[in-house]
């Protein structure tokens, strides 16, 4: 029994509708024979000059198209909302779910049999995978690739990570404004996304670990000819995947997510992967919880020596063998039978790879930290959980008791942080409220709030910080994030006051506010919800329907697979 391709419901037949579908496509120069039942491959392109990390996609897409044509498919490129991290305000995360809706409906509504997802900058990866997961067609990801290493005054500098350092050095008076400006040009030397293990590199690694991209996708630089070859092979492979009916739901199994969580630990990946993978799992209908992040990733050693946890950058990672080499090092910890877009298992994909630089990809007995991954904290301050990335934290602060210095909002923080009279020292715990999914809105990357200038000048470079916000994957520090429920919905974080004692115990997975239940109940009675930041429009809808961080911060009505709604018939 041969399967009738979905696109043939548009392009097959002799009736008026088929006439219309074909005729208008012919105005692009398409001849009769391309409607003969060959697979139609949608190429979902997040190119935008406002998303500089994806601005080279106009060239990259041509290689994908060539691959599709070589394999006998018909490539049709379409644009979707491009979530660029560096420009979008108030935060690109506010638009991840919107972009995913764009992707979903563009795929669902069009004559597409399989999809290539062109991702790069942070949120473009989860938004594309979430939208595609809601449709469950054969889909494959190609990332745009990282920028080349930054170079400044003879040393290597990394996107984001060195911005935070330089900015603190300027505030501490140990770097000149002139050098700060010069570093700006030295940091971004080529097309591509951030070349630290920030969220973009993490998510490029996550899609490879999930089995959604060809091996080698994560690390190959944007300007390396290898990236163009990978795009071409991706184009060829999606045509085969349509023939095999290799849909996302066959790949995005629980084993695939377990592999991704473990790989995230091994690479010292971004905390943002937590909300993105939870959201993707929610779309495809695979059971995954916040506690799975702790349980599955708890004893995974961080073996990738990349900023912000280590010292190298993505270009070095590529030369060392890329993600397949990392996966090979931790093969004993992976679900090797998990199926991938190659049509082969993870085990088959990585069995013959080599590690070419064991200072970049460290052997297990020289790991950066024996317990990488994401620690999930609970306690009366975070009943639904909060997270911390131990590999980016200061070991001495991972067990700490300190007095809270509270910032009610990000504006309150900005107004107060450099006040010389602020009652704060290095043992204090900085608490930032109202920066969660509803509070900011969009859950901005402000959790790694900069330290007070007066402490920076004393040489202090890390303090415990707690918030309901996220932080950039390029950032570091003893930073507790994603506290749920968030302050804006009346979570316990909303009730913290200056001077309260807080206990952080990462080993014990505990986050405790040392205030009696009775006093907290009194404070809760007196608490009033802040007025919504946004009313009306998409942003109003977002605030109304966004879920909390512990379940992926998706919009509640988008959760659950709707793949069955995509027309697919056999005859
Ligand atoms: Fe685009 Fe960092 S700003 S990946």
TrEMBL record:
Pfam families (UniProt xref): ILV_EDD_C, ILVD_EDD_N
GO MF assignments: dihydroxy-acid dehydratase activity
Location of the Dihydroxy-acid/6-phosphogluconate dehydratase C-terminal domain: 359-553
EC number: 4.2.1.9
Start and end residues of each Dihydroxy-acid/6-phosphogluconate dehydratase N-terminal domain: 38-348
Alphabetic keyword roster: Iron, Iron-sulfur, Lyase, Metal-binding, Plasmid
Homology family: Belongs to the IlvD/Edd family.
Protein name: L-arabinonate dehydratase
Organism: Ensifer adhaerens
């Amino acid at each position: 029994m041969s399967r009738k391709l979905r696109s043939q419901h548009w392009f097959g037949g002799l009736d008026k509708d088929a006439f219309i579908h074909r005729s208008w496509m012919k105005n692009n120069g398409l001849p009769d024979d391309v409607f003969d039942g060959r697979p139609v491959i949608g190429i979902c392109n997040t190119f935008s000059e406002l998303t500089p990390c994806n601005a080279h996609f106009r060239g990259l897409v041509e290689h994908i198209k060539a691959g599709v044509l070589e394999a006998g498919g018909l490539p049709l490129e379409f644009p979707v909302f491009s979530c660029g991290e560096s420009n979008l305000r108030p935060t690109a995360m506010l638009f991840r779910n919107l972009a995913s809706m764009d992707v979903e409906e563009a795929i669902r509504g069009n004559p597409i049999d399989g999809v290539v997802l062109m991702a790069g900058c942070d949120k473009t990866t989860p938004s594309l995978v979430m939208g595609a997961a809601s449709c469950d067609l054969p889909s494959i990801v190609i990332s745009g690739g990282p920028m080349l290493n930054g170079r400044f005054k003879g040393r290597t500098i990394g996107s984001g990570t060195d911005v935070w350092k330089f900015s603190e050095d300027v505030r501490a008076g140990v770097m000149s404004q002139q050098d700060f400006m010069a570093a700006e040009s030295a940091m971004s030397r080529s097309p591509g996304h951030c070349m630290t293990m920030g969220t973009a590199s993490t998510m490029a690694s996550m899609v490879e670990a999930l089995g959604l991209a060809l091996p080698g996708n994560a690390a190959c630089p944007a300007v390396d000819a290898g990236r163009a070859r990978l795009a071409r092979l991706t184009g060829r492979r999606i045509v085969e995947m349509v023939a095999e009916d290799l849909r996302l739901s066959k790949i995005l199994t629980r084993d695939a997510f377990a592999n991704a969580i473990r790989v995230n630990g091994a690479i010292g990946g971004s905390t943002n992967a937590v909300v993105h993978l939870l959201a993707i799992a929610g779309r495809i209908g695979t059971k995954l919880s916040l506690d799975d992040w702790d349980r599955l990733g708890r004893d995974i050693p961080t073996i990738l020596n990349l900023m912000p946890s280590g010292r190298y950058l993505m270009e070095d990672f590529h030369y060392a063998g890329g993600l397949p080499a990392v996966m090979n090092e931790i093969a004993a910890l992976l679900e090797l039978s998990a199926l991938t877009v190659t049509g082969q298992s993870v085990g088959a994909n990585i069995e013959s790879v080599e590690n070419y630089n064991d200072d970049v990809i460290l052997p297990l007995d020289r790991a950066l930290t024996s317990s990488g991954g994401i620690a999930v904290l609970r306690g009366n301050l975070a009943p639904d959980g909060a997270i911390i990335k131990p590999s980016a934290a200061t070991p001495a602060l991972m067990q700490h008791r300190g007095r809270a210095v509270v910032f009610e909002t990000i504006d309150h923080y900005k107004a107060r942080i450099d006040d010389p009279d602020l009652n704060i020292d290095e043992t204090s715990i900085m608490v930032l409220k109202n920066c969660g999914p509803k509070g900011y809105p969009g859950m901005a990357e402000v959790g790694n709030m900069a330290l007070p200038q007066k402490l920076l000048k004393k040489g202090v470079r890390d303090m415990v910080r707690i918030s309901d916000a996220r932080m950039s994957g390029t950032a570091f520090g003893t930073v507790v994030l994603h506290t749920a429920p968030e302050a804006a919905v009346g979570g316990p974080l909303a009730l913290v006051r200056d001077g309260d004692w807080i206990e952080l115990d990462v080993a014990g997975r505990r986050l405790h506010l040392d205030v009696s239940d009775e006093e907290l109940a009194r404070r809760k009675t007196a608490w009033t919800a802040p007025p919504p930041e946004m009313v009306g429009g998409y942003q109003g809808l977002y605030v109304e329907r966004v879920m909390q961080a512990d379940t992926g911060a998706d919009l509640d009505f988008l959760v659950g697979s709707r793949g069955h709604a995509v027309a697919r018939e056999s005859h």
